[in-house]
User: What shape does this take?
Amino acid sequence: MTYPELWRRLLPMYEEGEAKAIVRLVLETRFGLSLADICAGKVTHLSQDDGRELEDLMQGLALGRPVQYVLGEALFAGRTFRVTPDVLIPRPETEELCQWVVQTLSSTPLSHPRILDIGTGSGCIAITLAQSLPSALVCGWDISKGALAVARENADRWGSAVEFVRQDALHAPTDKNRWDVIVSNPPYICHQEREAMAAHVLEHEPHSALFVPDDDPLLFYRSIARYALSALGIGGQLFFEINPLYAESLQRMLEEMDWRRVETRHDAFGRQRMMRAERP
Assistant: This one.
């Protein structure tokens, strides 16, 4: 089967450009074929076993499964992370959140910053921070046993001494001065936004990590911010990935809770996507 025959199988589920990119990713990741190899027609030179594997992968893609789940891995901050349907697929804007945390901590005198990642999923945030800040003490929470298993596998893959704990963010313990930084990419999409979402996200990524009630879009932010008021040390930093639709209401909520220096940043696509606040 040729490269054009492969990507045309993904139409009209994906636009032509995205279909080509998905097939190229599969061919490069699983079979080591470069773009030059693909253009030279080397797809047709795959062994019989590789051909069967490619067909299995293409069938998964044709069913609408995201390519990262089909391959079982995703690239994040220059590292390959295992992903399964138990976890969200890491996204580029979350890399920018990690960069902000690292920049902030790099300018402080803390020698061993204590960092908590709430809703860790694949562990991509916690592990990226641990790798970027080798002296940090990093912990990740998640309510999902499946997600924690994936996160621990990723930590082993990268040699990161991150502690992963099963914990519901909506029922956090009573902690005092336990952390220097709390970071979270919590569920923040309302059900009323479903119509605007891609089918491969809606049908395959874990809804518990995506959605919040339409009548309470700040549910997780409120719970985490309340926990952080006591769990962070004075001057500790709270970082969120946010839904641009609720940026103003989230900032207002934090300010009403007496958080200081609330700051919003845009992602590379120009959307309000990150927020930071300092514990009073």
